[in-house]
Amino acid sequence: MATQTIREKQSVHHHQVNRLAQLKAVPKEMAMETEGLHVYYGDKEAIKNISLSFPKNAVTALIGPSGCGKSTYLRSLNRMNDEVENCRIEGSILYKGVDINSPMANVFEVRKQIGMVFQRPNPFAKSIYQNVAYGPTHHGLKNKKRIDEIVEDSLRKAALWDEVKDKLHRSALALSGGQQQRLCIARALAMNPEVLLLDEPASALDPVSTGKIEELIGELKKDYTIIIVTHNMQQAARISDYTAFFYMGKVVEYGETSQIFTNPQNEQTENYISGNFG
Ligand SMILES: Nc1ncnc2c1ncn2[C@@H]1O[C@H](COP(=O)(O)OP(=O)(O)OP(=O)(O)O)[C@@H](O)[C@H]1O
C-alpha cells in the first residue's frame, strides 16, 4: 500500500480544518427569538430593548443579579405576564415566524408548545398519573390507552418513571421535592412542547436532586430547546451552551457559555461571574 506523503497528509488535514470551519459557519436554527422587547410594569420599564435568539436543541442560561429582569423576560416568552395586572409588552417575540402576542396567536397553543416549570415544584393535589394526564385530557384527548402511553413516556423522559411506576395513583404531594420537580417537568412534556422555560428549577432542591435535574436537562436538550434562569453560576457553566448576562433590564453580554465564563468581554459580566456582586 502506498504511504501518504507529508504533502498529502497536510492536504487532508487542511481539507478537514476547512470542513470544520464550514460546519461551524452553518447558521444554527433558532427555536424562538425576541426583537426589541420591552416589558413594563406600569411606568417601570423592567426589560429594556432585548433582542435574543434561542438556538434549537441547545440550553441557553439567563444569568444576572437579583431584580435584573430574568424572570420577567422568561415569563414573557410564553405569555405568563398576561396574568400580571398592568404589565405591558412592546417589541416582538417570534415563534415559528409568528409574534406570540399577535391576534393570530392562540395563548393556549403558545403555552402548550412553550412549556414552563417554576422555581417551587407545584404539582396539583392529585395523583401522579393525573398530574401528567391533566394537560392532554384537558385538551380533549379521551383514548385511555393513548393517555397511558403519554403518561409513561413523559415520566420516562423526565427520569421519574422507575421511581413511580408502582405508585402512579398515589398523591403527587407524597413525592420528595426533587421528584415533584421532575413530575412538573413530565407534566410540561406531556403537552409535547418544543421549548421548555425553566425558572430556577433546582433552587429549592438539595444537591442530589439538583444533580438529577441537571443531568435531565442534558438529556432533554436532544429533543427540546431549553431556556433556563439560574442564580447558580456553576450550574450555568455546567449545563448551558449559551449564556445571556442580564443587568438592569438589559442583556449586556451574550455568547457561548465557554466564552462568557472564561473570557467575558464586559466588566459587569466579569465582576458577576467572579462573585464580586449580585
Ligand atoms: N408583578 C410585578 N409588578 C411590578 N414590578 C415587578 C413585578 N414583577 C417584577 N417586578 C419588578 O421588575 C424588576 C425585574 O424583576 P424580575 O423578577 O424579573 O427580576 P429577576 O432578575 O428575575 O430577579 P430574581 O433573580 O430576584 O428573581 C424588578 O425591579 C421587580 O421589582
UniProtKB/TrEMBL annotation:
Going by the entry's taxonomy, the superkingdom of the source organism is recorded as Bacteria
Query: What SMART domains does the annotation carry?
Result: AAA
By its UniProt entry, which PROSITE patterns does this protein fall under?
Answer: ABC_TRANSPORTER_1 (PS00211), ABC_TRANSPORTER_2 (PS50893)
Recite the UniProt keywords alphabetically.
ATP-binding, Cell membrane, Membrane, Nucleotide-binding, Phosphate transport, Translocase, Transport
Chain segments annotated as coiled-coil in the UniProt record? none
Q: Which PANTHER family match?
A: ABC TRANSPORTER I FAMILY MEMBER 17, PHOSPHATE IMPORT ATP-BINDING PROTEIN PSTB 2
> What is the protein's given name?
Phosphate ABC transporter ATP-binding protein
At the highest ranks, the source species' classification is: Bacteria, Bacillati, Bacillota, Bacilli, Bacillales
